[in-house]
Amino acid sequence: MRSESQHRCINTLSVAAGDHHPATTFQNCFRDAVPNPFGCSGDDGSEHVSKMSGVPTFVKSSLFDAPVADVFAFHEREDALPLLSPAFPPMRVISRTGGIQAGARVVIKIGPITWVAHHTVYEQNRLFVDEQVSGPFASWVHRHEFTPEGSGCRLTDRVSCSLPGGPVINALFGWTVAVGLRQLFAHRHAVTRSHVVTSRSR
């Protein structure tokens, strides 16, 4: 039987993904779920799934027609997190200290869930990493990677996470996380593009 925290995590991600037809999504995204519960990849090849230390890792990568410094600076903005968060489920920043630098801490509410994250790595114009301290997942590590590519920047979001409940729960319900992450990072990359590319063209 699933715990209340598992129900909340699964339901929140399903709603965030607009998952109104779970049976169809299950067929499309969960065909390889037992060996790799996050086995959904984008048709354009910009998303893929791998395993790091046995933990499923979701990857979203996009190329932006803007310098690395501009894309990184957008993520350092005080309002970046609210801008990058979808309208539903509603996200609210409860407290925040340290920006995105190592040692920073942020507490947010996403629907009914309180999420506390700690920033562990910061390399300006290259990388920052946040990890869940407490929240809906058993583990969550999010690497934000910025790489020069020609005159532009490749932004890669790499999320290694697992649900509470162990391998069986992850095998059964990891598809829900995959759907939620695909929708979340499609939104985040679109918002990033609209700010860093549009502002350069003005």
Describe this structure in words.
By secondary structure, the chain is an alpha+beta fold. 35% of the residues lie in helices and 35% in strands. The chain is built from 5 helices and 8 strands, in the order ααββααββββββα. Strands 1-2-8-7-6-5-4-3 form an 8-stranded antiparallel sheet. Strand 1 and strand 2 (55-64) form a beta hairpin. Mean pLDDT is 80; it is low at 5-45.
Number of helices: 5
Could you state the CATH homologous superfamily?
START domain
SSE sequence, one letter per element: HHEEHHEEEEEEH
Strand order of the largest sheet: 1-2-8-7-6-5-4-3
First-to-last CA distance: 55 Å
Helix/sheet category:
alpha+beta
What's the architecture in CATH terms?
Answer: 2-Layer Sandwich
Provide a compact summary of the structure:
The protein has 202 residues and is an alpha+beta fold. The protein has helices at residues 4-16, 22-29, 68-76, 80-84, 167-201, and strands at 47-52, 55-64, 91-97, 105-110, 113-123, 127-134, 139-149, 152-162.
Attribute tags:
globular; Alpha-D-Glucose-1,6-Bisphosphate, Chain A, domain 4; alpha+beta; 5 helices; 202 residues
List the helices and strands and how they pair.
Layout: H1 4-16, H2 22-29, E1 47-52, E2 55-64, H3 68-76, H4 80-84, E3 91-97, E4 105-110, E5 113-123, E6 127-134, E7 139-149, E8 152-162, H5 167-201
Antiparallel strand pairs: 1-2, 2-8, 3-4, 4-5, 5-6, 6-7, 7-8
Helix pairs in contact: 1-5
